[in-house]
From TrEMBL:
PANTHER family: LACTATE UTILIZATION PROTEIN A (PTHR30296:SF0), UNCHARACTERIZED PROTEIN YKGE (PTHR30296). Residues 18-93, 144-226 form the Cysteine-rich domain. Pfam families: CCG (PF02754). InterPro entries: Cys_rich_dom. This is (Fe-S)-binding protein. Transmembrane segments: none annotated.
């Protein structure tokens, strides 16, 4: 997946796309995003009329409905400011999925949103130039980092790995089949729940094999799927979004 050529940050003002998962389940991820960006001197603006990136309809094949959502979102986030998203999946929808579904009916507003969208850790490293995180865990902490499928072909995985690895007392540990999908896949998990569950359980097996102290990802959907299976199976695992780790290790 190739990301659109992204515009460099305009000053230090950004727009935050909170995502549906932040709204429904992970409000602290949105809060952590604001706190980390403000710590880095960025002013965060939050359009209150934002809704969804359109990915559920897009993944289900209902592109007419998805295009309506995409046009609305492009209007909400119009202008020149970077659009920051604490989700590799939703960010990829803006800069990859939306341009794809508008190939036969180009829309300048869609192209503009694609160029200005950044996943938050990618923005921190490649937009703001922060390559090391001046944070620390209180004690040695082993981190298992799950790379989401939607962040493939982007700078997100490398950005998160660089930031996590630079935290004092943190060790990012490898685990088996790390590049394999966790099985969530948006509407895939609803359409094929048994396949999705088996994929997620296999991913969980490999993660637990290395006995991490914390599971980390840049995608809330992956965390929700993996940790939901872990809880149901009686194998709970501590977990955080990458941006929460950055916020919570600030010195």
């Amino acid at each position: 997946m190739a990301a659109a050529t992204q515009a460099r940050p305009a000053g230090k003002n950004v727009l935050l796309m909170g995502t549906c998962l932040c709204d429904a389940f992970y409000d602290d991820v949105a809060r952590a995003t604001v706190e980390v960006l403000e710590h880095l001197g960025v002013t965060v603006h939050f359009p209150e009329n934002q809704t969804c990136c359109g990915q559920p309809a897009f993944n289900s094949g209902d592109w007419p409905a998805s295009r309506k959502v995409a046009r609305y979102t492009a209007g909400v986030f119009s202008g020149d400011l970077p659009v920051i998203v604490p989700s590799g999946s939703c960010a990829a929808m803006n800069f990859h999925g939306n341009p794809l579904q508008f190939e036969e009916c180009p829309d300048p507003s869609i192209d503009s949103l694609a160029r200005r969208t950044w996943e938050v850790c990618d923005f921190i490293v490649n937009g703001l130039g922060v390559h090391e995180w001046k944070g620390a865990f209180e004690k040695p902490t082993r981190l298992a980092f799950h790379r989401s499928c939607h962040s493939r072909g982007t700078n997100t995985g490398e950005a998160i790995t660089a930031l996590l690895s630079s935290i004092q007392n943190a060790e990012v540990i490898p685990f088996g089949q790390a590049e394999q999908c966790c099985g969530f896949g948006g509407t895939f998990s609803v359409t094929f729940p048994h396949i999705s569950g088996r994929m997620g359980s296999l991913k969980l097996d490999h993660i637990l094999d290395v006995q991490p102290d914390l599971l980390v990802s840049g995608d809330m959907s992956c965390l929700m799927h993996i940790t939901g299976l872990a809880r149901v199976q009686g194998r709970p695992i501590e977990h955080k979004h990458a941006i929460q780790v950055l916020r919570d290790t600030l010195r």
